[in-house]
């Protein structure tokens, strides 16, 4: 049941570009908010997608969606993420590096900050922090497109790796790790090993948070076409191989009424893919969302998608 998201803290919405992630994430966030949960809808997509669908300017700071009680939204660009990452970790990283060298701080931070995936790592950290602080009951994360779901799940490990990157680099330079550790101890003014240990603890905490089935729900969005089905298969089997899971699959853009040969044929084609998906993943809860005659923009249409996704009556 898609309604299960109400009991979670983080809903990650994944899938390839254009399948309806933002649309579904918005409707799910509205669903939670209307049921009394203070909800943050968060987008890390480089294009300002939430501003488009809600038809208001949403920026990098949290803002409440007008005419709703509990719904908040935020669009974070990679520049803002990198800036915050630097504010949070820059000092610590430089402190570790400085024990070994007098390389320029800007150089060091730029070098580490250019590591691929650092934005999403920071997003995960940011979400983890928000959840721990309890600022919101539920965070719905409209993730950046291109099947990143998998990569995201490996982030906590990467996160640590990047934070430790500077350290490891110099440890290698100095030869034996143990010898280097001694050097750290001697040179450190303030426990560098403590800082690195702190990073490790943090990365472990983030990892156990996103692997907590009681707190996190993964919703995958797809379309009943060859590309969508292939990608869903790939993501699901890779997740399974890693001991991870998807809670729900939304199949969007389903043709329900076909009143012309074109739509009739399309409907037939979709039927094949839908039964394929059902047979292939019999235990995966599936919700179909029909193709609407118009794009989904503005509160009224988001509400309509909410009704369709959660099987609600029109009056609600
Ligand atoms: N069920 C639907 N019926 C009609 N249009 C839809 C439906 N779902 C999504 N759309 C439209 O398709 C486009 C892509 O959806 P969007 O949610 O932005 O995808 P994504 O976030 O995955 O890139 C948008 O213009 C949206 O309004
Ligand atoms: Mg989007």
Can you characterise this structure?
The chain is an alpha/beta fold. The longest helix has 21 residues, at 78-98. The chain has helices at residues 21-34, 49-54, 78-98, 105-113, 118-133, 149-153, 155-173, 177-187, 192-210, 226-241, 261-280, 299-310, and strands spanning 10-14, 39-43, 63-64, 71-75, 138-142, 216-222, 248-254, 286-290. The chain has an 8-stranded mixed beta sheet, sandwiched between helices. The chain has one domain: P-loop containing nucleotide triphosphate hydrolases (Rossmann fold, 3-Layer(aba) Sandwich). A hairpin with a 6-residue loop joins strand 3 (63-64) and strand 4 (71-75). The structure holds adenosine-5'-diphosphate and magnesium ion. Residues 21-22, 45, 49, 142 line the site of magnesium ion. Residues 21-22, 45, 49, 142 line the site of magnesium ion (MG).
Q: In short, what is this structure?
A:
This protein is an alpha/beta fold and 316 residues long. 53% of the residues lie in helices and 13% in strands.
What's the structural blueprint in terms of helices and strands?
Blueprint: E1 10-14, H1 21-34, E2 39-43, H2 49-54, E3 63-64, E4 71-75, H3 78-98, H4 105-113, H5 118-133, E5 138-142, H6 149-153, H7 155-173, H8 177-187, H9 192-210, E6 216-222, H10 226-241, E7 248-254, H11 261-280, E8 286-290, H12 299-310
Parallel strand pairs: 1-5, 1-6, 2-4, 2-5, 6-7, 7-8
Antiparallel strand pairs: 3-4
Helix pairs in contact: 1-12, 3-4, 3-5, 3-7, 3-9, 5-7, 7-9
Bound molecules: adenosine-5'-diphosphate and magnesium ion (MG).
The site of adenosine-5'-diphosphate (ADP) has 17 residues, from helix 1 and strand 7.
């Amino acid at each position: 049941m898609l309604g299960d998201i109400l009991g979670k803290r983080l809903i990650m919405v994944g899938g390839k570009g254009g399948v309806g992630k933002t649309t579904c994430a918005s409707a799910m966030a509205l669903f939670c908010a209307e049921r009394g949960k203070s909800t943050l809808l968060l987008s890390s997509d480089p294009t300002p997608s939430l501003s488009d669908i809600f038809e208001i300017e949403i920026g990098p700071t949290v803002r409440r969606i007008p005419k709703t009680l509990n719904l908040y939204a935020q669009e974070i660009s990679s520049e803002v993420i990198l800036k915050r990452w630097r504010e949070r970790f820059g000092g610590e990283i430089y402190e570790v590096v400085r024990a070994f060298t007098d390389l320029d701080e800007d150089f060091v931070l730029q070098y580490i900050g250019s590591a691929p995936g650092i934005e999403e790592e920071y997003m995960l950290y940011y979400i983890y922090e928000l959840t721990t602080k309890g600022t919101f009951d539920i965070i719905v994360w409209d993730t950046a497109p291109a099947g990143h779901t998998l990569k995201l799940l490996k982030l906590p490990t990467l996160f640590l790796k990047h934070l430790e990157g500077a350290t490891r680099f110099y440890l290698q330079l100095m030869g034996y790790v143990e010898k280097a550790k001694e050097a750290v101890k001697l040179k450190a003014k303030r426990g560098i090993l403590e800082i690195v240990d702190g990073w490790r603890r943090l990365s472990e905490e983030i990892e156990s948070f996103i692997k907590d089935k009681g707190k996190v729900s993964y919703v995958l969005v797809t379309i009943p076409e060859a590309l969508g089905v292939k990608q869903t298969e790939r993501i699901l089997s890779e997740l399974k191989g890693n001991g991870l899971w998807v809670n729900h699959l939304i199949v969007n853009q389903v043709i329900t009424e076909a009143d012309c040969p074109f739509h009739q044929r399309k409907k037939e084609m979709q039927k094949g893919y839908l039964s394929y998906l059902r047979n292939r993943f019999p235990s995966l809860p599936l919700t179909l969302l029909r193709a609407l005659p118009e794009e989904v923009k503005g509160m009224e249409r988001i509400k309509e998608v909410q009704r369709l996704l959660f099987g609600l009556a029109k009056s609600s």
